[in-house]
Structures are given as C-alpha cells and as structure tokens.
Amino acid sequence: METIRIPNSATYSPIALTDLIFAAPLASRLLIGATLPGRILQLAAAGVYAGSVVGDWASRRGVRKIDFLETYSADVDHMEEMPESRRHEDVQRFSEELMDIYSPVTRKRDILAADVNERLTSYMAGITGQRVETSSAVRNVTLARFMMPFASGSCDILSGDIAVFRPTGVFEPHILAHEFSHRKGYLKELEAQALAYLSLSGSRDPQLRQSALAERIYRNLRVLDGDDPERYAELLDATPLADEVLEDFRRLRPPDQRAGAVTKAMKDLYDTRMKMTGQNGLSDYDRGFTNFLYTFEESSAQAA
Prior knowledge:
The protein is mainly alpha-helical. It has one domain (about 70-304). The chain has 13 helices and four strands. It has helices at about 15-30, 35-60, 70, 85-100, 110-130, 145, 170-185, 190-200, 205-225, 230-235, 245-250, 260-275, 285-304; strands at about 1-5, 130-135, 155, 160-165. The strands form two sheets. Strands 1-2 form a two-stranded parallel sheet. Strands 3-4 form a two-stranded antiparallel ribbon. The mean pLDDT is about 85.
C-alpha cells in the first residue's frame, strides 16, 4: 500500500510557532523592556513556520482525498433532514449502547492520540488505498483557546498544529480524531466530524467506540434542545447515561451556560468563515453531522 508522510514539523516545536509570531514582541517588551529580541524571535518563528507549511503542502499534493458523495451517498451539500422522532430514538439507543461498553479512559493523552491517529489512518487507507501518516503531537494550550472560548480544541490548517484545551473525558478520542482529520487535509468541519465518527465507531477498541457514540448522542441533543441549555439538561436527564459519562455531558454544556458578548461575536465570525468556505456554518457540527449519518445509513440500508 502506498504511504504518504506529511512532516508536520511545526507540531514538534515546544511552543506553538503561531503563538511566538504574535506574542513574542509583546512578551519581550513586558519582560525585558525592549521589543527587538521579540522581533528577532518573531522573524525566526515565522521562517520556521513558513518552511513547515511549504513542506506539508508539498507532501499533501500526493494525497488521494475521499469523495464523500461517492463513498457515503452524502456530503456537505447533499443530506436529508433527520426526523425528530429518529433523533430521540438515536439518543436512547446509543446511550444504552454507550453505557453497556463504557470504561473510563486512563491512557495518557500522547498515547491516546497515537492510538486515535493510527485508527483514523487505517480507516482512511481502507477507502483510498493510501496511508496518510501525520504527527500525533497535541498541545494543551495555544492562544486560540482565548480567541475561541467556546471550542474544545483547534487545528491550524496550515501547519497542522493541534491543541485540546481541557480534559473532556469520554469525548476526547473523538475530538482528537476530528482534529487529526484536519491535519490530514480535510478542512470542512462536517467531513472531519464524519471521518472521526466513522473511524472510531468501527474500532475494536471500546474506548474509541464509546467516544464516537458520545459525540453522536451529544450532537443529537444539541439539535433537539433548540439552543436552550435548560432544555439540554432536561433531555440529558431523560437518557440512560449515568455516573462519569453523565458528568462529561454536563460539563460540555452546563445548564446555566449563557453566551457572553465576546463568545457570541466569535461564534458569529466563525459561522461566517465556515459559510465562506462552502460549509453550512456552525450547524455542520450538530445538525449537519447527524443529517449526514442519517442520509448515509438510510442509503446503506436501501442498498442492502
């Protein structure tokens, strides 16, 4: 089988190069009272960053991308609306399945990331006949955390630099797989959501599979709650979810969570950016993702 290796050299830097580019002059001014050392560091970081981006771009030219419409009978522009009754059925069914197989994830993040990356790589290779190997490095924090306080993680699509901002329990493998999908060249959020889910849900590793189930349940709940945190809490209490899993779901969307002005502004900006890149906006994370799975599974059932 053909193998494509994307260097992702920027991901191995001790500090995110984008953080150095933006923050070095300010930090230099605050710490030593002069901006010149920061400017020098900024230029050096920018040079390394540019070299990494060029190297990754050259490697990606040989990647065979998955044709979503051909492979799954659905893509960002071709999906059927999932009936509300089916969403409730999904939540109940997959909540029961999740609790049946659940065990706490105790692997360290670097080990978990490597396992998730390998699973995603193998899944994609089974479709394209090509292994796209990338870095498994993940950061705990970048400046993006403060720019997108509503997000659980981020990926710099140019350098492939990934950060997961906080412990997310049962959801973490799916979040990692989502960001690794971006690193492998799938820039649309719905595509990253779908590849993460489909790769993990078919895994023999129950801790990867349970994460895919949790993501599916959560996204259906987000559609059903109508953007009302209190309604989300009511729907969540009606599920078979319990113990640590239930707490993970609650932490992801607390009942008293209300978007502040900054968060709302950033969400609106991100929604606009997504639409400008041929996506449906932030709805691709929940409604789009669940509609995609519904369309794909209905098509597969009819074909059988």
